[in-house]
Amino acid sequence: MMGTLGPHAGFILAAYGVTIVIVLALVGWILLDGRMLRGQLADLEARGIRRRSARKAADHPTGTR
């Protein structure tokens, strides 16, 4: 395979490697951030703080704002 990429094979493979590492790091960051935000939301809801989108129908009898 190295021969089919020509004289710049090392650079090409290194670029692919760096790209893969960066993409995996971003995916990991997104997953960890989502877990952290879900924990914060659960903490707020446990303290009685609710999201505006979770208001009961009694708050908006017509279902509109």
Provide a concise account of the structure shown:
The chain is mostly helical.
Give an account of the 3D structure.
This protein has 65 residues and is mainly α. It contains 1 helix and no strands. The chain has one helix at residues 9-46. The termini are far apart. The model has no long low-confidence stretch (mean pLDDT 86).
Instruction: Tally the beta strands.
Output: 0
Q: Low-confidence runs (pLDDT<50, min 5 residues)? A: none
User: Separation of termini?
Assistant: 63 Å
Strand-pairing-aware structural class = mainly alpha
Number of helices: 1
What do the pLDDT scores average to? 86
The Cα radius of gyration reads 24 Å
Fraction of residues in H or I helices: 55-70%
Q: Given the C-alpha coordinates, what overall shape results?
A: rod-shaped
Q: DSSP strand (E) fraction?
A: under 5%
Largest sheet: none
| H/E element order | H
